[in-house]
């Protein structure tokens, strides 16, 4: 069965055929590094991580590029407000982003280009557009002339006739109704100078518009034509429409073969937005005791093109599912195995393994149908539990055990939540060892009547979110809720 994706460009599900057999070039619009990412942003990054992992599962050699928007209206505004340079402003948000990725098991891209490092490539594209009569200067800025590019609107299907010839928009973000010539290069303003976001060009000092950044970074890293472009559904217009116009306008070649867009996340039924304060970061959840592995599982329960309603009830159910699946994997791993088992015993798990892997692949091939693929893993776990129960104390055949464990591992190489939960429990165990050791040190300090040290150790333990209670049976500890 072929792998199929829903392509926003054609509004159809299509068989995936990469430009070069066996290889995939893939670009995701990364975050604007001006705020910590919320769990809605993280859903998009999780989606590109899932896509990349599944392409690798299918044997493709993937080059995955995710940019960091470190110069645009928002970052400049932030740097100005904090009275720091653009670099000083964005750096902590970049560190925080990668910390969020690590916590959620989102693997780093092969390249994370920063817009500020690709300005010469942006200038070059703008120069080519001008040479081809697709861009014009106005008051030190350069704009894309959409009336000269008949294919404008092909991705977003916006009504181009609604745009009035020669009218311009200089903001990085604008509405779907606002079909006008968009800015490629912005003449420097005093605030740009103040934060060090100015480059000298043939058009005078200035800085790039947001859309040109992605055209430059993606083509520099993946070539003028590449396979997959991913982003949130809110980027279809104007951002991705403008990327196509810039890239195809400059090169005369098709830019991207498949456009994939991930849907929004709702928080208890409402759209998450910074503007309304209805918002959660991963850190907020972790502070409430939520394990990132259950967030990852929850993301998988909805198709990427559907809105996902994020609820604490759903999160609790996800945590339980992760616990059960990982528990089964652990029991299977720990069950004694024999190289030459009882000849009267039928190793029934082999069939379940084959069926699960086939069902998983078929579901994921169908535009990454993760909820159906998850059901395949649950069925395998059910079969494994039944098999272990049937065996009781008898050993399992080594080959049967290895096949079932390999199937868990293969599916989790894509899903990623069991591996993530393994890491989380190691942290728990590490914490437990540390707390026990500190409690013993505190007891010793008290015994020698060094109460200052004992109190200092108690504070040190409390700082890790652990509450110690002294009982007649000795000290007991628990995680603060
Ligand atoms: Zn982009």
From TrEMBL:
Q: Which reaction does it catalyse?
A: tRNA(Cys) + L-cysteine + ATP = L-cysteinyl-tRNA(Cys) + AMP + diphosphate
Q: Give the CDD domains listed for this entry.
A: CysRS_core
Co-factor(s)? Zn(2+)
Q: What are the EC numbers?
A: 6.1.1.16
One record GO biological process:
cysteinyl-tRNA aminoacylation
Residues bound to Zn(2+): 29, 214, 239, 243
- Motif ('HIGH' region) spans which residues? 31-41
Q: Spell out the family assignment given in the record's similarity comment.
A: Belongs to the class-I aminoacyl-tRNA synthetase family.
Q: Which PANTHER family match?
A: CYSTEINE--TRNA LIGASE, CYTOPLASMIC, CYSTEINYL-TRNA SYNTHETASE
Q: Which HAMAP family match?
A: Cys_tRNA_synth
Show the NCBIfam families listed in the entry: cysS (TIGR00435)
Any idea what this protein is called? Cysteine--tRNA ligase
Organism source for this protein? uncultured Gemmatimonadota bacterium
The record's gene field reads cysS
